[in-house]
Amino acid sequence: MCLSSPRGARDETPVGQASAKAAPAKMDHVRQQAPPDMDVSKRETQEPTTVSLQREELKVHYGYVCQRGYYPQYGDAWTCQDQCVVKERFGEGAYGDQLYIGVFDGHGKPGEGDVSSLMCKEQMHKKLAEEMEVDEHLSHSSNAFTQETTAWVRAFRAMNATVMKQMGAKANSAGSTAVVAVLSAQMIQVGNLGDSRGIIGRVDDNRGSLRVIELTEDQTPHREDERKRLQACGAIVEISTYETKKGRKTFQSFADMCSSANHLDPLRVYVKGAMAPGLALSRSIGDAIGKKLGVCADPEFLRHPISSRDKVAIFFSDGVCEYMTNEEVLALVMKHSPDPHKAAAAVVEEAYSRWQKKELRVDDITCVVAFLDRKRKTVVTTDPWGNQLSVESRSVSPPVSRR
């Protein structure tokens, strides 16, 4: 995500120039030259890797692709602002040995957005491990969920404080999303800031096909609960394109402004009477000006018990979901099962192709695929006559816990 991203800090380039984002119909009139084909030399990848958790109770087969996008105003000088990382043997938590996955999508000018996401890549796992160690006494008690949430909030706040301190004024209108997952044999814990996403592909009992289980919910001003929180902190939330500022586009009401027909630009966060910061996120790392307007660094936390019906976990930046649905992502990934690297590469290539058809630029694109193989447990029971029976458990999971 960069300064001209529909999700990041506002780019004030007038409509018609290469970095501006307009409605698809408008783009047909201003198109100068379609973005070039994807440069596969400008990517970071992880070839298929398998890790076993808790004595092979869960095997995770993962891989990823982090692809640099294309911005015509920067050409080959553009630095990818997406970052991703996978850490094996991530501590000994309440659920045994764990696997850490992080996707960070920076936004801001070159030298700002890329720096903030890189800092998250290099330091977030350390901060989270430290906070989890503080709460190493956690168990499956009734208050464990609340304690876990507190540990994640402390880690994300610490990461935000580090970015703000080390970047100084460069963090005023720059920062990063963060979707972080910690996998154990029994559980996936997810903390999320912004609009990067995590999903699970689960076998549906009734049909036998895979369906999407969402692990995250986008945190943007389009969400009514997030928008009200921002407005209560004094933020002005509105669509503010070059055309609306020049009076060429007006809206009858707030609902009219938010309708799909009028999405010339996403809802953004502004200081009253100013064009800053123009952030299209309601939570993030960094973004010092936004922090004064209610943009917070407290993650939404979710705990998902892993079932043998859960076949894949996928994490990706909004470079993927800008033009692909969660269902499309899952379907494409499963076409390339069981190779997670090929699956991630296929998603990145499809997303890039859709950007080429829609815009003059292509956002940075990241996709992490983790195929899951959880053993079914054998449950020993006794029939009414005292005979022992061995039955294969269906590993039915309790409801997802969400903060």
How would you sum up this structure, described in words?
With 403 residues, the chain is of the alpha+beta class. It has one domain: PPM-type phosphatase domain (Phosphatase 2c, domain 1, 4-Layer Sandwich). Helix content is 27%, strand content 28%. It contains 10 helices and 21 strands. It has helices at residues 24-30, 113-134, 144-167, 224-232, 242-245, 254-258, 288-291, 318-321, 326-335, 340-358; strands at residues 43-53, 58-67, 82-87, 92-93, 96-97, 99-107, 175-176, 178-183, 187-193, 197-203, 210-214, 236-238, 268-270, 277-279, 285-286, 300-305, 310-316, 365-374, 378-382, 388-392, 401-402. The strands form 5 sheets. Strands 3, 6, 7, 8, 9, 15, 16 and 21 form an 8-stranded antiparallel beta sheet that branches. A 6-stranded antiparallel beta sheet has the order 1-2-18-17-10-11. The chain has a 3-stranded antiparallel beta sheet with strand order 12-13-14, with helices on one face. A hairpin with a 3-residue loop joins strand 8 and strand 9. The longest helix is centred in the middle third of the chain and has 24 residues, at 144-167. The two termini are 26 Å apart.
Please summarize what this structure is.
The protein is an alpha+beta fold and 403 residues long.
Keywords:
six-stranded antiparallel sheet, eight-stranded antiparallel sheet, Phosphatase 2c, domain 1, alpha+beta, disordered N terminus, single chain, 21 strands, 28% strand, 403 residues, 27% helix
